[in-house]
User: Fold this.
Amino acid sequence: MSTHTITKQQVNFKVFRFNADEDYLPYYENYDMEVTSEEVVLDILNRIKWDHDGSFSYRRSCRHGICGTCAIKVNGRATLACKESMNNMVKIFGNELVIEPLSKKRSVKDMIIDKGDFWEKHEAVKPYLISDVDEHPEHEHLVTPEEAEELNEADLCIQCGACHYACPVVEINDDFFGPAAFAKAYRFEADVRDDAHVERLEAVHQEKQGVWDCVKCMECAEVCPKDVDPISKITSLHNMLFKEGVATSNVATRHAVGFKHSIARNGVLDEGGLVLYSEGLSIVKHVPVALKMFTKGKIVPPWGITKSDNLDEIQKLVKSSSTAKF
Amino acid sequence: MKKLRYALFTGCTAKQSTPEQMMSTMAVADKLGIELVELTEASCCGASHLQDYDDFLSLVLNARNIAYAEKHELTMVTICNTCQLNTAMTKHRLDNNAELKARVNEKLAEVGLEYKGTSLVTHFLYAIIDDIGLDKIAQMVETPLSQFNIAPFYGCHNIRPSELQNETHKTPENAYNPTSLDDLIIACGGMNVDYDEKNKCCGFHAELQAPKTAATLTGNAIAGAMDNNADWMVTPCPLCHLKLDTQTHHASEAIGREVSLPVLHMQQMLGLALGCPQESLGMKHHVTKVNFL
Assistant:
């Protein structure tokens, strides 16, 4: 039997509806449909509009996973409607699917959201090559294949917003640039032709908006339809902050560096010591919780820590393998 | 059946801020007939922060930890999601990049070690599901937890990125609809609670630098479980546990609502169901009282 046999199944769609001009609150409309294994999520959106309710609104354009326009959420998972097969959705979530915009709070009409915050953050990282180019250059600015390779992955971003609106920090902290903007910042930071390194990194280093507020949930890596892997670009930006000397001493940078000191001393982490090193005098704000933890036997003093066996090996490796300075 | 043997990478919290997690791991392993060979030579995995400062050093240290599991010719079992991610990601990167692996091994050679890539790295939760099986575990249950609604909290670093799930586990789960912990609750006789935050972030890794963000995420998680009638929560990650158990005051303040639930490590839940003596599971070390025992 051919592997291309078309199968059909009954699916219940619960679709988010909201018109900012008319509705006080959003509501959900139910549609029961027979869907085939050939269809993608965008086909379903089209069928809702064409067969059921012409007022249903969503964005679409290229239908080839290139323009980044049609990203929505299915059962909480951000995805490109034109790329995501119905088969895959039913396989993951079963026959009850919830169709929602990327951000419910930013919905203007049904799936259409106000993506202004996304573009604002995008703009804030100066997403363009900053270079003092000679008006009449005598030769090309050559980039080796290895140098180009460094930014290839980040260059694939289509600005669909899937990672931005999947990021839990973006949801809470209005200042946070978000994973797409960071991946874009990396795209130009890693470009050998770019001259703005420090300027761009300084924006990325700022607390509240910058990389230090990332919670490392890996949502951005999981959701990206283009495998940009924003979290790895965020790590690279962290590394660049130290390498370019942009990182200043604050609770976040000391927290990262403190791991190295702790490992060099004990092999394992000295949890209390790390918090003290990171916070300095601000440690006092942790006292109420620390006291509770202490009474429950959750705090081990520095002298009570069981160091790793063969600590000399670890110390030797920390010395010989370190690549960063602070 | 041949006795299961694993190399245990305890991570740092099990020896410091979550002693109950170490206790319950040993108690449950004993009940399940698992022999755990503790990797006492292991260093801290860097907890997803060391790599921000020095990525290469982080790789070398994690490769060294795995090299010790390889010396024992055993699968490395972790009991912390972040240890799992850091170690499995190191393995993933070295196994897929010969040049990087050679650079790391050049350093390890200085201390007479080599990373080969021969040991699997998996979290205890997946090790028992893959190697013992949920049916077998269900058969071993002595005290079914049938009177409890239990909310699973998966913890990011076990379920994302899914490429690590796919290469590590016999039955990889989907990050958007994970089932392992739900299945374990059911195997223990409990009722699994479904709620939106079960596969979301607890905020732990931004606790010092972004306390409000971190506390809001913790608060949302507990509130989600409470609103779906959970009696308590269960997690495979000691870092999630620290947030959910010790930070309820900040979490409540951040979301403007009193939130608090007892939170058990998955080993403690399993231990209760398997009939381990309660004192062997370390409930007295919890900040939020385990009020149902």
Q: What stands out?
A: Chain A has a mean pLDDT of 95. Chain A has three domains: 9-113, 116-243, 251-321. The beta strands of chain A are 8-17, 27-36, 71-74, 77-80, 96-100, 107-109, 112-113. Residues 166 and 219 of chain A are 6 Å apart (CA to CA).
